[in-house]
Amino acid sequence: MSRPSRSQLKIRRYLPILEWSKTYDRDVLTSDLVAAVIVTIMLIPQSLAYALLAGLPPEMGLYASILPLVAYAIFGTSRALAVGPVAVVSLMTAAAAGNLAAQGTPEYIAAAITLAFVSGLMLTVMGIFRLGFLANFLSHPVIAGFITASGILIATSQLKHIFGVSAGGHNLLELVTNLVSNLPDTNVITLIIGAATIAFLFWVRKGLKPLLASFGLKPRTADLLAKAGPVAAVAVSILTVWIFGLDTKGVAIVGDVPMGLPPLTLPSFSMDLWGQIFVSALLISIIGFVESVSVAQTLAAKKRQRIVPDQELIGLGTSNIAAALTGGYPVTGGFARSVVNFDAGAETPAAGAFTAVGILLAAMLLTPLLYLLPKAVLAATIIVAVLSLVDFSILKRTWGYNRVDFAAVAATILLTLAVGVEVGVSAGVLLSIGLFLYRTSKPHVAEVGLVPGTQHFRNINRHTVLTHPELLTIRIDESLYFANAHYLQDLIYDRLACDQPIRHVVLMCSAVNEIDTSALESLEAINTRLGEMRIKLHMSEVKGPVMDRLKRSHFLDELTGEVFLSQYDAHVALTKSPVRGVAAAG
Amino acid sequence: MSRPSRSQLKIRRYLPILEWSKTYDRDVLTSDLVAAVIVTIMLIPQSLAYALLAGLPPEMGLYASILPLVAYAIFGTSRALAVGPVAVVSLMTAAAAGNLAAQGTPEYIAAAITLAFVSGLMLTVMGIFRLGFLANFLSHPVIAGFITASGILIATSQLKHIFGVSAGGHNLLELVTNLVSNLPDTNVITLIIGAATIAFLFWVRKGLKPLLASFGLKPRTADLLAKAGPVAAVAVSILTVWIFGLDTKGVAIVGDVPMGLPPLTLPSFSMDLWGQIFVSALLISIIGFVESVSVAQTLAAKKRQRIVPDQELIGLGTSNIAAALTGGYPVTGGFARSVVNFDAGAETPAAGAFTAVGILLAAMLLTPLLYLLPKAVLAATIIVAVLSLVDFSILKRTWGYNRVDFAAVAATILLTLAVGVEVGVSAGVLLSIGLFLYRTSKPHVAEVGLVPGTQHFRNINRHTVLTHPELLTIRIDESLYFANAHYLQDLIYDRLACDQPIRHVVLMCSAVNEIDTSALESLEAINTRLGEMRIKLHMSEVKGPVMDRLKRSHFLDELTGEVFLSQYDAHVALTKSPVRGVAAAG
């Protein structure tokens, strides 16, 4: 094989399909096909249900599960990720489109399609510019809190379908009060169908697997069969409605779902609309990306595979653009279905393409059968799916480990529930960044001394160490930058104000990874002020990159003291002999 | 003297006047009075000029220089700061009020008064909650760039008065094109007056002081006399206009300035208006605070005094509230006049209160004399004052030292000139924070080895050090938090993928000041993954506060390796003997 040229390498970066398709054979094909069949069966009710959650016609859920999967198969790097409509992104779509138009209007549908397009563009551009690192600014606790709160919101929003009443709202209070005030209109038959489906689906999750296993099925097969629970619920409920004519007794049904190929659609190119949905599209992009990448990474790690986050952005971006062009709405990699895909043996992204074919067939052939499907059944599948996402343990964990993280999680959960998804997740991100900046603006600074018998220096308040009355050594535990430059200045002046015999101040820079222009100016001010007090300023353990930069300024010429390679060198030179030191409190 | 009680201490914190008034005597009084007379003379034309710059009636400049000074004298901590209208804040007021109403309308004036009130509230609240540290997020280079760009904008905006034409605009392009297109309407007499005043004021700055000194005056006296230049220009120009009747020949004059006490005014309490001016008021507050505190700190340092930034917030906040209640507009501590106050010998904030009396007398007695004052003269004093603020050297300094800072300065200057003050300074702040976050999200990480003959470990790429083939030591030069948690994970996996014999990985945490929940989860993942590869994960030099927190999690129980006090201990224990190490490239 000849060495690939540069442009070939570039093409390969953007088209992972060229890599895995080279070794594609009959065995892999079989595995992928089996996985595709199972995921298709799981995805049909899910697609319909999430479209309902997004406030969109059910067929849009199917359309969002066809071409986007093909796009991901071409551009994505995860071997097992199953793309399509997911709960949280559907809820965010409903919130964003609901701000612009009423559910059921053409403007609402146009807004959802445009959201997919703009979000797809954003993801693709972020991928091309390798901005995948931006997702890192969503901390794990904030994501966990957001998913939990969203799960609660989603489950609550679906209760109206279980009771057969109409009740809207974007936050928990609105949802609950609207629901409660409409409870007198409850349709009892709908409630029975809904409650029975919920009970059945929970039993499928908890009870069916052990039962199937007791019949001698392998655990994995039992597990996969249990995933078909929603399909069984769909089939049984359609039959029930048909036999008893329940649609004439007030049970809300899905109704006409158009049969055929997905339509070709175009997003709106109104800059006005783009401006209005910009923030929503950005949040949907980032949340969708984070959710998808974390699933993809988890599954890749199990097989010692790697995914490329920046290429994942392109994979998800093109999927969303594909969704916008074929009557879909925002999609991303889903947790539950990716795990099923993985467990069912999917080996390459081709499984996703085969799933797309399955859904396409469903859209072309099965939609008339869905006419009598009760909405309560779809709502029940959503409720059971999202309640498994609700997990408050992150509150306990962060409370015990890190109160700052706790504050961010608590704010995310409270604001998501009380105000809505967009405010909740934005507040979580801004709060975690703000608290991080706050901490770095007041860095930890320790006065250190020599640990006897070593060349190691530690905090005088925590260890028994040797110090010297004329020598003050300050270890700065943070990079020096504009936000903490003044803090250091104040701290040193305060420390010197109460200690007369000091003749040397050493800044131990083992943790200083950067000194920016503002901090350099502060160091110059400290150097000058100490010079006036006839105290010499020294530095030790300055890192290579920091030293390189300092050499380009005048600071080292003006420095009254020296720069020592190690703190031990500084200690020896400035105290003449370390033995002269006196032991500080342990 | 008995020990002050807790509540007395609290009162003293908020009322610095109680401290300095205890030792107030005749000598101090004399010094303060002399300084007050000089500052009053300087402040009269300045107040009028900055009101003109803010697009407000001239008397509002005087009103802003009376009660606010008294408020600062009571609540401020700087002994020499002179509060009042300043150039940059006046420009920002014009920009903010100009967004809401046309200059000269009552709505415009109401907006300016409300800006002062809201900004005063914000500053006071920030002071009570000790949020002064927020100002640290404005980096020195961003401030320097912003002041320079504002100076250019201000000078350009005043050229219309020099040419005697009307021309508005919020950015450089608008200002210049409007000015150029109106140049045919130039009033030649106005231009002569304006140009002559500018030339005179520049000569006063550069030429008068040496001249006076050659007459035998002391340098300080010569300096202070030179500061009276604008007053001389005002007096001479009024006389000239009167003698030649120039006001009838198209020279724009100040006109009627009401005589008497400042009026009692109330800000608007429309929440709608407050919402509209919120961001502007916040920017004015922070810029004003930063400018004021840096002047106050510089002057305090000269006399080995200290200022209390959080109390300064309260001082400036009450000053602005006072301005809003007495027909003024946003004020802050000014650089030029504070230096004059200091040089003239002001010893306590009482000098400011005496200045207020001086301006009050001027407002009550002198305003009829100002009727014929040409606006061109006021514009000339502004131009000469602000051009001294323009200094592009920060671009050169940051280019040489730190390109990241350069980017922030360049963006601040360009956007301030091209779009306006609010966008410019916001972009500077956001860009510097964004770039800082970006850097911390991809922290510097070095593979280290033992410097022979010491117990010190340095980067294997920069120093000749001892390493061991089974031991990989990674020094992380940044706190571990959500934004870089994944980065570390990827980095370690990549490093291990290409090096087989490694049996021990040591994370040297000398620069890790914090491990948040996200990073802890990443460490757990690394520990598990390395465990599967039968590689032990160790840590060394973990700091006290970090260790305290780790002990509260399960991580230390699960850690496959050990936590060593020093990297040297880790090296000795894991290589059995450091002598077995091999030297890596220097």
Q: How is this structure best summarized?
A:
Two copies of one chain form a homodimer. Chain A is mainly alpha-helical and 586 residues long. Chain A is built from 25 helices and ten strands.
Q: What this model shows, in words?
A:
2 copies of one chain form a homodimer. Chain A is mainly alpha-helical. Chain A folds into 2 domains: 24-426, no CATH class; 445-583, Transcription Regulator spoIIAA, CATH 3.30.750.24. Chain A has helices at residues 6-14, 17-20, 26-53, 58-63, 67-75, 87-98, 106-128, 140-163, 172-182, 188-214, 219-226, 229-244, 271-302, 309-325, 335-343, 350-366, 375-387, 393-401, 403-418, 421-441, 482-497, 517-532, 544-551, 555-558, 567-575; strands spanning 83-84, 332-333, 445-450, 457-459, 466-467, 471-476, 504-508, 536-540, 563-564, 582-583. In chain A, strands 4-3-6-7-8-9 form a 6-stranded mixed β-sheet. Chain A has a two-stranded antiparallel ribbon with strand order 1-2. In chain A, strand 6 (471-476), helix 21 and strand 7 (504-508) form a beta-alpha-beta unit. In chain A, helix 6 crosses helix 7 and helix 6 packs antiparallel against helix 13 (271-302). The longest helix of chain A has 32 residues, at 271-302. In chain A, 53% of the residues are buried.
